[in-house]
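Q: What residues go here?
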């Protein structure tokens, strides 16, 4: 198939929102499909590519990998100021609501910046299906617009929670604009059950996966780290209180063995908060590191801890898969969805829910005393179903069915 995949984030952007569509575009190319990955520009000041040069590059592209088409936004200063909080609140709300009602989204500047390439893709690349991720609704508008010119179906993907980004007063009207999609994929079943309820479409959960190399078991070693993975979502105080309570009940020689570890975008915040642990255990706090390096730290942990966003139903954190691959005990603070708990159980993982600092201290106590050089016994055969390659096969089936129905 010839597929156009649309995501606002450039694949080299250092944000988690850049990963999903880029990884699936690469996996679909490995399955033999021709994929154009249309994104925003990494450098917003870069000039747009000449459509004639894009057409020439498409003609000679090596389709074993996706063709990246990065589209700078067309400057709309008032809209950009509204998105970035640079306007008084009443005016900001008016501008954003107006763009939702008139254009179906608030990244109209990016959509208009990409529009010069829609006819080119329709005439030269001739896609058989397009796939756009929310993210933001303008990725859907782009996928939908290219599909209309190409006379092919488009498929929507939901990777973020609709209710968290689309204002309730305009939600129904915006959803109706996209009701002509052929199918809907989502980051999780929770995304489909909640955000997906606005759309009466065939729905399939396509989980953001893990690289196949994470399935390789680590050599046995006695774990000594407490790791925190990803954003804390405001739960850092509770986490630190639980860790401190656990450490306070250990003798000095045991505390000297333990290293509190964090690697990620909140490293400065974590460094400040973790100062309370200084002298009670070792500290290893780093900025973003490569996933393979992070996995090495997680495999040295007697407990892998992460904070979970609450308040939005269906908000699924796919980091649970990489933590299951580490094959060490896991703790979610303060809770987890039933979907994630069920996945962990199916994979044979050890996942604790810690609603408060006392529960976290107890989980740390249990896993410290029960630590071994061996893992927890995660079923890597089951976990293999959640690799990028395995989930790409599911996505391929959705796109194939959508393209087939259009013929």
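A:
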């Amino acid at each position: 198939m010839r597929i156009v995949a649309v995501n606002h984030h450039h694949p080299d952007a250092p944000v988690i929102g850049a990963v999903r569509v880029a990884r699936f575009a690469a996996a679909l190319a490995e399955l033999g499909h021709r994929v154009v990955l249309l994104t925003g520009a990494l450098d917003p000041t870069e000039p747009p590519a000449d459509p004639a040069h894009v057409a020439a590059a498409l003609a000679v592209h090596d389709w074993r990998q996706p063709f990246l088409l990065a589209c700078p936004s067309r400057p709309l200063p008032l809209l950009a100021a509204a998105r970035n909080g640079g306007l008084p609140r009443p005016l900001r709300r008016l501008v954003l609501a107006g763009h939702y009602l008139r254009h179906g989204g608030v990244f109209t500047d990016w959509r208009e910046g990409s529009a010069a390439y829609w006819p080119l893709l329709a005439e030269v690349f001739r896609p058989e299906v397009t796939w756009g991720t929310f993210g933001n609704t303008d990725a859907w508008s782009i996928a939908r617009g290219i599909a209309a010119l190409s006379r092919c179906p488009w498929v929507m993907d939901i990777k973020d929670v609709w209710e968290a980004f689309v204002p309730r007063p305009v939600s129904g009207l915006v959803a109706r604009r996209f009701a002509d999609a052929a199918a809907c994929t989502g980051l999780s079943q929770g995304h489909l059950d909640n955000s997906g309820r606005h759309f009466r479409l065939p729905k399939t959960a396509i989980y953001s996966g893990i690289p196949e190399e994470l399935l390789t078991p680590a050599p046995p070693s006695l774990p000594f780290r407490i790791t925190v993975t990803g954003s804390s979502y405001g739960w850092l105080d509770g986490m630190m209180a639980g860790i401190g309570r656990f450490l306070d009940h250990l003798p000095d020689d045991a505390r000297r063995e333990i290293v509190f570890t964090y690697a990620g975008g909140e490293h400065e915040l974590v460094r400040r908060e973790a100062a309370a642990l200084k002298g009670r255990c070792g500290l290893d706090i780093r900025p973003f590191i490569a996933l393979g390096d992070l996995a090495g730290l997680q495999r040295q942990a007697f407990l892998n801890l992460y904070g979970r966003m609450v308040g939005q139903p269906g908000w699924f954190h796919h980091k649970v898969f990489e933590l299951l691959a580490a094959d060490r005990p896991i703790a979610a603070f303060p809770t987890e969805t039933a979907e994630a708990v069920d996945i962990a159980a199916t994979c044979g993982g050890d996942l604790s829910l810690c609603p408060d600092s006392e529960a976290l201290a107890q989980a740390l106590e249990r896993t410290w005393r029960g630590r071994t050089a061996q893992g927890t016994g995660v079923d890597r055969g089951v976990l293999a179903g959640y690799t990028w390659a395995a989930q790409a096969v599911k996505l391929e089936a959705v796109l194939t069915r959508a393209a087939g129905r259009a013929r």
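A: Context that may help when evaluating the design: The longest strand covers residues 34-40. The two ends are 13 Å apart (CA to CA).
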